[in-house]
Amino acid sequence: MNKPLVGAILAALLLGAGVAPAVAAEPAQPAQEAAPKADPAAKAVTFAGTVALSNCSGSVVRTPDAAPTDPALVLSNGHCLESGFPGPGEVVVDRPSSRTFTLLNASGRGVGTLRAGKIAYGTMTDTDLSLYELTSTYRQIEDRYGIRALELETAHPAAGTAITVASGYWKRTYSCDIDGFVHRLKEGRWTWKDSVRYTPECRTIGGTSGSPVIDDATGKVVAVNNTGNESGQECTDNNPCEVDENGNVTVREGINYAQQTYNMVPCIGAGSRIDLDREGCALPKP
């Protein structure tokens, strides 16, 4: 996650794409390792609704109660913010932004450019996520491009769930299962709670940061891809470690992780606006 942009690409070339962490990445040709093959029995997941950022991946998302006239939201990582990594304890809310996103169709072709009006929310405390509010509504995007936003799951996912990580940046998908959940995932200065751990097949690489993690059975977003342990180090930048309830530390070299998104839904109110004071909202506040 924390690796310098040029360093992330260099590591992918020298060490092999499968061991590079899910960090932000500068534009480059993707490594030539074949993406993991999807389970033929699983529901097909496409790129429709995903987006490419300048250095990361993302997706247009909505809550189940979102209205067609609401301003659309783009989900990515907090460490993908154009302003840089938020520090521990830092929360960004309602900050003006004119960032652009390339919207992809089902086959991964860019069909248009979406523009943010503001960073609605962003943090790397307890979780690693950003939500941009767009200048377009859900209806405008669907009418113009024929693409619906991905729906956010409202419940905690289960271990063993078949998932797909869909990277708009690389136009690649990674298929695996949820292996389990991590009480605390520590990386450098940051600590994340109840993180998703993938089975080894999801060998995500630099630039997949911010990709939606999609439940193959429902097509709903259950998490946002954010990091992985690159070289077996313990709790360092680019080498997150797992800490259980008793403080025991486990290092899983080559394993990648995501942050759950069901806990965002209570914080999104009428008009798809972020409201951190809503009942049930437990996201960190400024």
Describe the protein's architecture and organization.
The protein has 286 residues and is mostly beta strands. The protein is built from two helices and 16 strands. A six-stranded antiparallel barrel has the order 1-2-3-7-6-5. Strands 9-10-11-16-13-12 form a six-stranded antiparallel beta barrel. Strand 14 and strand 15 form a beta hairpin. The longest helix is centred in the first third of the chain and has 11 residues, at 5-15. It is globular, with a radius of gyration of 17 Å. It starts with a helix and ends in a 26-residue tail after the last strand.
Topology overview:
Layout: H1 5-15, E1 50-52, E2 57-62, E3 71-76, E4 91-96, E5 100-104, E6 110-123, E7 129-137, H2 138-145, E8 150-151, E9 162-167, E10 172-187, E11 190-198, E12 212-215, E13 221-228, E14 241-243, E15 249-250, E16 256-260
Parallel strand pairs: 2-8
Antiparallel strand pairs: 1-2, 1-5, 2-3, 3-7, 4-6, 5-6, 6-7, 9-10, 9-12, 10-11, 10-14, 11-16, 12-13, 13-16, 14-15
